[in-house]
Amino acid sequence: MRSLTDHSKNILRALAATLLLFIAAPAQTVGWVQVGSPSARADMAFAYDGATRSALLYGGINGSAIFGDTWIWRGAWLQMSPATSPAPRMGPGMAFDGAAGNVIFFGGSTTSPVEPGSSLADTWIWDGANWTQQFPPVSPPARTWSSMVYDPVARTVMLFGGANLAGGNGGFDDTWIWNGIAKTWTQLYPANHPSPRTVNQLVYDEATRTVALVGGVAANLTNLGDTWTWDGINWHQHFPATSPAPRNGPMIAYYPLLRAVVLFGGSVGVCCSTNLNDTWTWDGINWTQINLANPLPSPRNAAGLVYDPDYKALLMFGGASSDFSSPRKNN
Questions:
Q1: Whether the model pTM is above 0.85
Q2: Listed residue (82, 35, 23, 65) closest to 314, CA to CA
Q3: pLDDT in tens, 226-272
Q4: 3 state DSSP class of 251
Q5: Which of 132-153 are b and which e, b meaning 16 or more Cβ less than 10 Å from the residue's Cβ?
Q6: 3-state class of 5 per DSSP?
Q7: Residues whose CB is less than 8 angstroms from the CB of residue 173 and which lie 6 or more positions away in sequence, other chains included
Q8: Which residue, 123, 154, 136, 116, is CA-closest to 230?
């Protein structure tokens, strides 16, 4: 069996640094609007920081270039200059920790997938001005392309999936939680859980008060299209009447104005090829495709997507196209 790294030599082409807003008007007219933003990249950490009311971006990759810069979006982009930062990397996990009032960041890789290297297992916290490394007594195994989300019911951050780029690891199926008050990682052992995977996505569904998981890629490089939810004790697989095509690296976020989870794009091919630009919603029971009349963002995977309550819109940044050449600007 070949590993993910074997196919990652078709390294992604980062889309231009443009920010896109998915907006629902009071009459429930929905669409995408493009606004300006910074440098082209994919596989960065991207999360909404509720303490500072800003979208936080860290790192990412463009070809063989690995980034270690920190940016915030608060109506405009501002590059930050923290005294300390994680090493430049691609594919880390990141989420806002509502209990601790800061952003938690884990893992990733300091090398491009086309280069020899391995994944990381370091934990960092962003306090709105600086990064501080944490040294918990126990941590998840090193991994890249995991997904993290804050569960306000449990008041912890959940981590699932990802892969170690060294040794051909095809993906993890372990469930971990971060307690931001105690600053500890704890592995959970639910009776049921999704299969091993990487580049999957987690999202907290406020309407159903559950964590939802969708997609990813299996160890044999098969794209996955299954939907799971976490109720605080166990994982439950759903079998909706309709679902998005199996894919890896989709963008997903909860959108309060629609009271639904929104999914955009992702790749239905191997390693960033054959990307999509379709938009779907999950209502806790079924997936529904939204057919939009306005121009859509170009097909992509591994972009960032968050909900901004001040704009009442989803913000999407960057991503990888299916053309493995030089970066380009969105049109």
A1: yes
A2: 23
A3: 999 999 999 999 999 999 999 999 999 999 999 999 999 999 987 66
A4: strand
A5: eebeeeebbebbbbbbbbbbee
A6: helix
A7: 160, 161, 193, 194, 195, 196, 197
A8: 154
Side chain identity, residue 86: P
Interval 224-233: pLDDT, tens: 999 999 999 9
Residue 293 — pLDDT band, cuts 50, 70, 90? confident
> What is the rounded CA–CA span in Å between residue 228 and residue 27?
31
Q: How far apart are CA 70 and CA 25, in angstroms?
A: 31
Judge whether residue 170 has pLDDT over 70. Answer: yes
Which domains are delineated in the chain?
Answer: 4-321 (2.120.10.80)
Rounded distance between C-alpha atoms, residue 9 and residue 257, angstroms: 40
Q: What is the pLDDT of residues 127-139, one digit of tens each?
A: 999 999 999 999 9
**C-alpha radius of gyration, the chain, whole number:** 18
Q: Distance between CA 61 and CA 152 in Å, rounded? A: 31
Q: Tokens for 259, please give them.
A: 């009271």
Are residues 285 and 261 in contact, defined by beta-carbon separation less than 8 angstroms? no
CA of residue 302 relative to chain centroid, distance = 7
